[in-house]
């Protein structure tokens, strides 16, 4: 009887840990101002061998941000701006460039990132990327996170919950980052009457 | 008649056109960028399927095939994104309000696998108004007992359903002006509260637009939902334990449609757990070793050591060993700058001399209370002095007594003069005294002058008063009556 109870307790605990163990750890600057609503997204830099992961993540980030109600500058405008400024993709984004983006698009922050890991072997997928947000007034980093996850991490009971596609995993990770930022009011759109 | 009908018809047509513009928004569906085919991949099939779905939902759709010649004319390399020039050209060409941009993130018809990301751009202000990402894979599809097989077409249909759920309402709402909120009245009580006590907030609002999805008050770290009761929206919560000033903001959210949040500052309240620190300074009184003493009146000035808001005060005067106050006076609001006590009771009758306890109790707005008590000596009469003389033969004993007094004496002088006004004896002192002088061989018509004063200024001056001695006489022995020595004849 006691053995059964112990097994059930362990199972319950494992389920709880599986269900609630995913939240990105955000590194937030001390002098950050909450409630950023208007942002521009720079193309994510792909440092992996898997082609198209940077573009995939960029699109997912833009779509998820729009879905969360943020005012996001269209990617085409950002790309045209980067071409005009002769910015080489993958190089460091200078504070001056960030400031110019703020002036031109009227945004408070610029979002960008680097994909550091993207693996897909059979049903196992793994994705790791850096996500950062910079202030357009001075180019300083406002907050950021390095988030790495496997599809297996989302498994709850038996085979349920597991994510086996790269786009599914990326979508879930971006959603978690945005939700964590919304919870801390780092991103927030509000209209005061 | 015909004119009237035509006029009516014209306005009806205008109304129908306006309704059509709102209800059947025109959306340009661009060919999708296909990342599964490489960085320059294009997918028209999926884009067409999406266009079909939207058309089935009642939107007026420009299909990707119709747009391709225009994209070629504008030299658009990648249909995954557009700039302002392209967006405006497309808007002018197709008279469309929206452009749908899509990306096939992953695709495999055999597995099946489909990852889609879409966003909708409003052409008039070049703003992204809709976005979404979905991903389905057969690897994660686990039907019950493995009975149902899922196909790529299923994924495509589900993706469309998920990506565009609520789009119609969103576009309809966006064609209307956003809701407006006006706060008519805010009641927040108490404004100052002790930690853990209940705070109540009532707000009277006017909302123009659809009812909000969420309404509540944002307390910094907490969110308390508002509920409607009569004309007011109410919220209750317990004040935090930590002292400080806390803002109360009204937050109203519309999750659908405009996706806006209105945040209106309502008021602040203060958590105060510290009782007011009060000091009672005494003026118009003389400091004595025992306590401050006064003769006519005393002035008590209360001072608050910490910046606190007093809501109520109570001043009581007790006898030294009594529990029943002789004066009790209270008030609401700020403390008066001074209290003046003239040594009387509540009816204005003078009290007896003695020691009294004055207690001032105060309450701050949060209900914290504290009190301060001080002793006061009330003396409005000079000390009692007594000069007596007793004459015993040629001796004159003069006894001089000053009774104990509640406050110290400043000094006293006693001069004894003879009938010609010459000073025979002079005594001085500063304390109560009980002395006896013996004068010999003096006439009995002596006079004295007494000057006596305490530290409060109560004084006695007796000038040239005659000393009337009590004459002592020796007791005469009472002689016993002699018995009759003579015999009385019997009869």
Instruction: List the domain count of chain A as a whole number.
Output: 1
- The helical percent of chain A reads 25-40%
Outline type of chain A: globular
Radius of gyration of chain B: 52 Å
Estimated structural class of chain B: alpha+beta
Instruction: Report the total helices of chain B.
Output: 6
**Roughly what fraction of the amino acids of chain B lie in strands?**
over 45%
Principal-axes shape call of chain B: rod-shaped
**Mean of residue pLDDT values of chain A:** 85
CATH architecture of chain A: 3-Layer(aba) Sandwich
Name the helix and strand elements of chain A from N-terminus to C-terminus, one letter apiece: HEEEHEHHEEEH
Helix content of chain B: 10-25%
Distance between the termini of chain A: 62 Å
Strand count, sense and barrel status of the largest sheet of chain A are: 7 strands, mixed
Q: What's the name of the CATH homologous superfamily of chain A? A: ABC-type transport auxiliary lipoprotein component
CATH topology grouping of the largest domain in chain B:
Rossmann fold
CATH top level of chain A? Alpha Beta
Low-confidence stretches of chain A: 16-20
- SS field, number of helical segments of chain A: 5
> Spans of chain B with pLDDT under 50 lasting ≥5 residues?
15-23
* CATH topology-level fold name of chain A: Rossmann fold
Keywords (chain A): Signal
Organism (chain A): Thermosulfurimonas dismutans
Signal peptide (chain A): 1-21
Protein name (chain A): Penicillin-binding protein activator LpoB
